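Problem 12. The chain below contains 149 residues. Write out its predicted structure in token notation.
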Amino acid sequence: MRAVIQRVSSASVTIDGAVRSCIGEGLLILLGIGHEDDGTDIDYLVKKTAALRIFNDENGVMNRSVLDVGGDVIVVSQFTLMASTKKGNRPSYIEAAGHEKAIPLYEEFCRRMSSAIGKPVGTGEFGADMKVALVNDGPVTICIDSKNK
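Solution.
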């Protein structure tokens, strides 16, 4: 499971011209799910992400987590994070889990993240053509792969 975590001052997901989710200060998480991912990958990423100290404290030092600042979270499924670019110029998505596996894991990730931060998590729609807008604060972008613990 791969996550691209962006500290944002605002973010939104729009589908077919309608805003599905929007937040102020918090995290936008792009989540890629692979064939070999399971609940242990979710546990690792949720725990790591919720505690990730990437928000500034009173001294301007990145020393606070999304929990500490009471921030919001949007999680967007993104199978392209599982792309392999080893051969040629056309990415291969063979490592991305199919819908039957990825949807339940995505939904479980969202439930566990919501539980971890104590509030609802914004989402996109699995498989939809989404327009994701964000103001990356910093910019701060962290990539985490649950297979590289």
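Discussion. Strands lie at 2-15, 18-23, 26-32, 55-56, 62-64, 72-77, 122-123, 130-145. Students who got a different answer should revisit the alignment rule from Section 12.3.
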